[in-house]
Specification:
four-stranded antiparallel β-sheet; mainly beta; 24 strands; globular
């Protein structure tokens, strides 16, 4: 129906009020009309980009869009709140790079995974701080920061009083949403896949190119594994729940 070649990158679109919002490789957060793809506004979040630009996907709640930025120069990244009406910046909060993780918002608090500071020497690894960051949705003030043993590329999931966040250190962390304390953690394997929550179950996938590959269902109350499935390749894609089933894809030579 339409194609806008200027808006491209890793960010997934958020649909809101006849428009879509998404981050792009040029460092802008765009708001496009869903009917024809023309630009309503573009907010500059990164002045300079090297290769990927904005990889976090925006979350729209009321009059704000929340999105993270990945600093490819190795400096701090940010969580940014943008006024949806006109694309102006409401607030910015400096942190480690937010790379792929998209914010979750509940009861006036923004939760997002922090990848860490990009290591420009290795051009592969990230250095601390990494973990899960909670911010006041109205002001951007820090509520708490939960440190993990590795980068968090997945998007946190909200389940009642818990924030569920998988890390590349191999653990799925259940964090008290108000206090920022660990309630439990479960060994699920290194992952960048975002979990899905349904009822009292959280579904999480893992997979790295060393051969490990799992999809698990865990009890939200205590993190105990209910079942494990081994797919035909590593899973970097996020899980979607619908109609009593979960859907995901594998990153293999013949992915499924």
């Amino acid at each position: 129906r339409w194609h806008n070649p200027l808006v491209r990158g890793f960010s997934s679109p958020a649909v809101f009020d006849g428009t879509i919002l998404l981050g792009a490789s040029d460092g802008h957060l765009y708001r496009l009309y869903a009917s024809n793809g023309t630009e309503r506004w573009a907010a500059t979040l990164l002045e300079e980009t090297v290769f990927s630009g904005i990889t976090s996907s925006p979350k729209v709640v009321f009059d704000h869009a929340y999105v993270g930025t990945f600093n490819e120069s190795g400096g701090p990244g940010e969580v940014v709140a943008v006024w949806v009406s006109n694309g102006t910046i409401a607030w910015r909060h400096a942190t480690g790079s937010v790379h792929f993780s998209s914010p979750a918002v509940a009861n006036g608090t923004v939760y997002v995974g922090v990848m860490g500071r990009y290591n420009t020497t290795t051009q592969i690894a990230f250095d601390p701080p990494y973990g899960v960051l909670a911010l006041d949705a109205a002001t951007g003030g820090e509520v708490w920061f939960f440190e993990t043993g590795g980068p968090v590329a997945a998007s946190p999931a909200i389940a009642g009083s818990l924030v569920l966040a998988p890390s590349k250190d191999g653990f799925l962390y259940a964090i008290d949403r108000n206090e920022g304390d660990q309630v439990w953690r479960a060994n699920v394997g290194s992952t960048v896949s975002s979990p899905a929550v349904h009822g009292d179950t959280v579904f999480v996938a893992s997979g790295s190119f060393d051969g490990s590959r799992y999809v698990r269902a865990l009890d939200i109350a205590n993190g105990q594994v209910r079942w494990t499935f081994t797919p035909n390749g590593p899973v970097q894609a996020s899980i979607t729940y619908a109609d009593g089933k979960i859907f995901f894809s594998t990153n293999a030579a013949n992915g499924t």
